[in-house]
Amino acid sequence: MHTVLEAKHINKYFKKPVLFHVLKDISFKINKGEFTSIMGKSGCGKSTLLYILSTMDTDYEGELYLNDDLITDSDHLKLSYLRNKHIGFVFQFHYLLSEFSVLENVMLPAKKLAECSAEEIIHNAHEKLRILNIEHLASKRASQISGGEKQRVAIARALINNPSIIMGDEPTGNLDSYNSENVFNIFKELSEEEKLSLLVVTHDEDFAKRTDRIITMEDGRIVP
Ligand SMILES: Nc1ncnc2c1ncn2[C@@H]1O[C@H](COP(=O)(O)OP(=O)(O)OP(=O)(O)O)[C@@H](O)[C@H]1O
Questions:
Q1: Which of 10, 12, 13, 14 gets mutated to test ligand 1 (max ligand atoms within 8 A of its CB)?
Q2: Taking every annotated instance into account, which residue ranges of this chain make up the domain ABC transporter (predicted)?
């Protein structure tokens, strides 16, 4: 089984206001197509861990592998490239640009990566909107669509560069139960049919129970 992401003995300390050992010897693997949730009480270190796994925080001890490559000591430019190419993000808040159209919002990470022609990017963005059943919204401004629709646009944007893994920080935290179910079903389908890996921090037990695996954290450690 191909491993998409591997954390080996990750430790993280916050140095201020006092020295605080926030992540303690975290090790796990995420395989291709695996849908994993991370749960744990507020303050146990979930977001801190996701920040490291998503390559945004480089101030940690231990090793991080992306598609079997050790990326821990990569410079910021390389990490920014790897992040954009291989990792899609879905947050609690959608972070869409409200004055841009839905299509333009979805295209943005592909423009940044600049590995496809403008025509290909438009074609790919339409394809992602079709997968998420929101192609009819393509020309609307992001400010003109509902909360549930915005989150689906955010997922389409996360998919645009065909990442190896989608990371979510409470992606259903702002949604009602209907839209949360919708997002869950989209993620499940992506993992089963596209063999996409998903790693989602959530407080929603119903959501987590239906993922392939729950990683439970307590006081900066993974509960064995
Ligand atoms: N920049 C920082 N400096 C010092 N301490 C921090 C910093 N950021 C977070 N912490 C502390 O680290 C711990 C873990 O925070 P983190 O945000 O990872 O928790 P979490 O599990 O994601 O919580 P929640 O479920 O409430 O989002 C908390 O005790 C928090 O107060």
A1: 14
A2: 5-223
Q: What pLDDT digit, counting tens, does each position of 86-110 carry?
A: 999 999 888 899 999 999 999 999 9
Provide ipTM, 2 decimals: 0.98
Residue among 125, 218, 208 at smallest CA distance from 172:
208
Let me know if residue 51 belongs to a domain. Answer: no
Within 6 A (CB) of ligand 1 lie 14, 20, 22, 40, 42-48
Domain interval for residue 212:
34-46+81-222
- Whether 104 is covered by a domain: the verdict is yes
Question: In this structure, are strands 213-218 and 87-91 parallel, antiparallel, or unpaired?
Answer: unpaired
Here the CATH number for the domain that contains residue 141 is: 3.40.50.300
For the beta carbon of residue 153, count every other beta carbon within 10 angstroms. 26
Q: Domain total for the chain?
A: 1
Residue 140 lies in a domain: yes
- Tokens 């989602």 correspond to what residue? 200
